Amino acid sequence: MSSTQLKRYFNKITELSEHDLDNICSKFELEVIKKGKFVLTQGEVCKFEGFVTKGCFRIFSIDKNGNERNLYIAVENWWLMDIDSFTNGCPSELNIEALEDSEVLFISKSDKDTLYRDVSSTEKLFRIMSQKAVVAWQKRLIRNHCLTAKERYWFLLETYPDIVARLNDRQIAKYLGISHEFLSKIKKLR
């Protein structure tokens, strides 16, 4: 099922031959991740890109004062990685933790590089995926700079109700960059 799920995802991005899809998907390995397990911690080099087939993860950083900030939440059909660490081999500034029992299809840098070399359509596929990711990050930055905390909360609630339902209030507050107490005040204003 998970390989089929990945194929469906790729086919939504760009048209690929069945042969290319099979070659690309063959480089991904399924791993079961238990709730609470970290697949990446700050300081490690990220050696994977992961496609979530089941479950929920938080991707977060911890500042020098110990404050956590959830950068994004990854659920089914979302990607896990620290792109800077994965691409450049530098220590990660991120942590990736499973919030639920999960399943992820992982690909290593060497396997991805092999695909780039051997399957020409891989370049187009991952270029389009990267462009879409940059657009999403840009929109999130704009929202974070232009919307109030209350507006960001309502946007999150209206746009991703299925994700919000899987998170506790502390996780939501960390994603919004506000305190748990302030989130409680926002929720009372309904």
Gist of the model:
With 190 residues, the protein is of the alpha+beta class. Helices cover 50% and strands 23% of the residues.
3D structure, described in words:
The protein is of the alpha+beta class. It has a domain at 2-119: Jelly Rolls, CATH 2.60.120. It has helices at 2-13, 18-26, 83-88, 109-118, 121-146, 149-159, 161-164, 169-176, 180-188, and strands spanning 29-33, 38-40, 48-54, 56-62, 68-75, 79-80, 95-98, 102-108. The strands form 2 sheets. Strands 1-8-3-6 form a 4-stranded antiparallel sheet. Strand 4 and strand 5 (68-75) form a beta hairpin. The radius of gyration is 18 Å and the shape is globular. The mean pLDDT is 94.
Describe the secondary structure blueprint for this structure.
Elements: H1 2-13, H2 18-26, E1 29-33, E2 38-40, E3 48-54, E4 56-62, E5 68-75, E6 79-80, H3 83-88, E7 95-98, E8 102-108, H4 109-118, H5 121-146, H6 149-159, H7 161-164, H8 169-176, H9 180-188
Antiparallel strand pairs: 1-8, 2-7, 3-6, 3-8, 4-5, 4-7
How would you describe this structure in keywords?
single chain, 190 residues, alpha+beta, Jelly Rolls, 4-stranded antiparallel sheet, 8 strands, globular
* CATH class wording of the domain at 2-119: Mainly Beta
| Shape field | globular
* Gyration radius over CA: 18 Å
Mean pLDDT: 94
Please outline the major beta sheet.
Answer: 4 strands, antiparallel
- Spatially, the strands of the biggest sheet line up as 1-8-3-6
CATH-level-4 superfamily name of the domain at 2-119: Jelly Rolls
- N-to-C order of helices and strands: HHEEEEEEHEEHHHHHH
